[in-house]
Amino acid sequence: MTFNKSLIAATAFIALAGTAHAATETKTLTTTGATSIIESNGYTFSQLAGTGSLNFSSTLITALNLAQVNVAAVAPATVAPTTSTTSTGIVRYTSVSAAAPVTSLTSTFDGATLNVTTVGTAGGALQTTAKNSATNGPGQLSISNLQVDLTSKIIYADVVGNSTASATGFTYGSVNLSHYALWSFDSISGPTSFGINGSTTSVGGQNTINGLFLVNAADVDNIFVKTLGLNNTGRSGITSVNTRSASNTAGFGSILSNISASVAPVSSVPEPSTYVLMGLGLVGLGLARRRAAR
């Protein structure tokens, strides 16, 4: 019996290559539910934790104070403001930060490198107004459940609000938008890619997203003026927040995130086809050795 050496060598190579190849997978790890533990390319990812904090810019703080906007938390997020009081008894914000728990992390993984593509958080901030010199009546606006797309540099949010104000030249009323492309961002600093090997036990780090500006400039009117009951004075304040200039590179602010997840290697069971290829390769090698010995 004669064996084709090239065929035997090719069979062995295919068998070995079949055990080493790892296709890039896209998966979402969450803090609850069925995807709180995921397996991808020989590794288990679990125990997702972290927070994303939206830090309001100084320009946004000025606009909030102009319209005497009150900021409160949308659970499970928390809001940490600092204030000062004027001589006339008016409370002014000096800083505002809304911290929301991370609930999801989507990434691609090829068996060696994990690249984070999207991060999701829960909760947010609620803004409310009353009639004053910068508004034509009461209103409220909540921005919550942010989804940060690192690839497109877009931040999606649930945007819900309503105002009962009325005045000539302004449109007031309700807004109810789910997963809406609200802001774009200019840059992100910090790690978003992680090398994974058998000794890796965790991934994560601290990131800062800078320069939040509205994807659609018309949302100054379509969202903020409409739901907060702003008049021309209040509108000028929020317009200045969204106007990029040498003195305003922050826009609405920045997002500081701290995220971590656990990593552990798992013993993967080869597919039946892989066993067949391995068997053919070993048989071929064995026959080649016997023929050489003869």
Low-confidence stretches: 5-20
Percent of residues in beta strands? over 45%
* CA(first)-CA(last) distance: 12 Å
> What is the CA-based Rg, rounded?
28 Å
Query: What kind of sheet is the major sheet?
Result: 8 strands, antiparallel, barrel
**Overall number of strands:** 14
The average pLDDT score comes to 89
Tell me, briefly, the overall form. Answer: elongated
Tally of contiguous helical segments: 5
Class based on secondary structure composition and strand pairing: alpha+beta
Order of helices and strands: HEEEHEEEEEEEEEEHHEH
Strands of the biggest beta sheet: in what spatial order? 3-6-7-9-10-11-13-14
Helical residue percent band: 10-25%
Give a description of the structure.
- This protein is of the alpha+beta class.
- Helix content is 23%, strand content 47%.
- It is built from five helices and 14 strands.
- An eight-stranded antiparallel barrel has the order 3-6-7-9-10-11-13-14.
- Helix 1 runs antiparallel to helix 5.
- The longest helix is centred in the last third of the chain and has 22 residues, at 272-293.
- The chain starts with a helix and ends with a helix.
- 34% of the residues are buried.
Question: Can you give me a brief rundown of this structure?
Answer:
The chain is α+β, with helices and mostly antiparallel strands. 23% of the residues lie in helices and 47% in strands.
